[in-house]
Amino acid sequence: MSFFSYKAMNGMGEIVTGTLEELDEQMAYDSIAASGLHVLKIRKSSALSDIYLKKVSKRGIKATDIIEFASNLSVMIRAGIPLMTAVMDIAETTDNRYMKERLLDMVRTIEMGSNFSLAVERHQDVFPDIFVSLVSVGEETGRLDESLNDIAVHLQRMEDLRNAIIRALIYPSFALVGTGIALLFWLLYVLPKMTGLFLAMDMELPPITRGMIFASDMSREYWYMFAVIPAVAFAAFKILSHYEYTRYYVDMMKLRLPVMKLVLTNKLLALFTEQLRILLSAGITIDRSFDIIIKVVNNAVFRRALLNIKEDIMVGSKISDSIQKHKYLFPNMVIRMVSIGESTGNMPEQLDYLSGYFLAKLDDLAEKMGKLIEPIIIIIVGSMFMIIIMGLLAPIYNLVAGAGSQ
Question: pTM value?
């Protein structure tokens, strides 16, 4: 779809301008006219403008905006307010202009005869696939308000999960950046001053001191490499992550790193159990549920395991038996509770407990991350300064020892 900018006149004779996304100019014209505006001018945006507008409009809408929309719409429908009126009222009261444009486009789509799920599907860059699926189920079953409430609860859990991961990574990121800045300060400022003193003594320097002087000289001469190397490493990481074959091994490496393994494993298990819970509760089939989850999971190792599990289920295996084949990713607790859920018929309840458990574990991990990382940081920083101090003191010790022997 492309963006179209327009100028129109409303019923009060006021000039209205805006942009909307449509398949072609005629559909854009019809969509604007259907909202009660008289189109004066309409123009298709350029390709570059389309890319910019899509990115800006997407980034301008946060997860909290989607959660608030789903929650408010659920309450209004339950109160008996017609769907189109409810969406229009929410659009008129929202402070986010990007969200307002999306909602008004949804209203125009509904006015032209589409159902609500199709109107939402037009904006899948903002609304996740699970939102579209649950809304579609809610329309079919006549329980749209319940589906929207389930969506709000689920997305809030996912937002809590994201915040927990961010909190978990704050301390290690700060520690690594601080250590890097301290190292640069020593290499670029302190060591050059000491180097001049040592060279003025015209004495034989120990290997560790010569190594430090060499590192300092290289750092000053090729200072730009401190920016180039991280940029190249980041670009290489992105390129490797782009291809499924190499991404599998990159993600496998992440799952084996000591501290990162704890964060990623709990995140993936919380995401899997929560997504499966909400989808099964809505009555979505197990194969369709796995398809949706596989799209959401951004770890190639976990995604491949889910694909294998889905294939086993489709040929008649139990979910617990299929999961058990991947015990390196799924702990015994998950296998056991999924098995109980299958036996008793209360799978959503078991998954609800599991998702809550892993979210709580991840939140606890975020609070304790400092204590987990602290020994590693102390070892790195301590080793770095031990080498620096030894390099600085060794020539002085040799000088004093030589003077004492004379």
Answer: 0.64
Which among 47, 35, 44 is positioned nearest to 8, based on CA atoms? 35
- The first and second tokens of residue 55, run together, are 């990115």
CATH of domain 2-58: 3.10.20
Q: How far apart are CA 47 and CA 26, in angstroms?
A: 18
Find out whether 22 and 101 touch, Cβ atoms under 8 Å: no
Q: What is the DSSP string of 246-289?
A: HHHHHHHHHTTSHHHHHHHHHHHHHHHHHHHHHHHHTT--HHHH
> Which of 60, 123, 65 shows the shortest CA–CA distance to 93?
65
Tokens describing residue 178: 């601080």
Segments in 45-141 forming alpha helices (H): 47-59, 63-78, 83-93, 97-111, 116-121, 129-141
Percent of the chain with pLDDT over 70: 85
CA distances, 199 to each of 221, 300, 367 (Å): 18, 54, 49
Among residues 31, 41, 50, 44, which one has the least CA distance to residue 9? Answer: 41
CA pair distance 160, 360, nearest whole angstrom: 10
Q: Are 135 and 146 in contact (CB under 8 A)?
A: no
Q: Are 80 and 41 in contact (CB under 8 A)?
A: no
What are the angstrom distances between the C-alpha of 110 and each of 35, 88, 98?
Answer: 11, 11, 19
- Rounded distance between C-alpha atoms, residue 113 and residue 84, angstroms: 11
The model's pLDDT over 317-341, given as tens digits with 9 standing for 90+, comes to 898 999 999 988 899 999 999 999 9
In the structure encoding, which two tokens stand for residue 398, read together? Answer: 């040799």
Domain boundary assignment for the chain: 2-58, 62-127
Tens digit of each residue's pLDDT (9 = 90 or more) over 71-103: 999 999 998 888 888 988 898 888 888 888 888
Handedness of CA 272, 68, 282, 87 (dihedral sign): negative
Q: What is the pLDDT of residues 107-161, one digit of tens each?
A: 878 877 778 888 888 887 788 877 888 888 888 778 888 888 888 888 888 788 7
Burial letters for 351-377: b for 16+ Cβ neighbours within 10 Å, e otherwise?
Answer: bbebbebbbebbbebbeebeebbeeeb
H or E segment and range at residue 193: helix 191-200
Q: How many angstroms separate the most distant Cα atoms in the chain?
A: 104
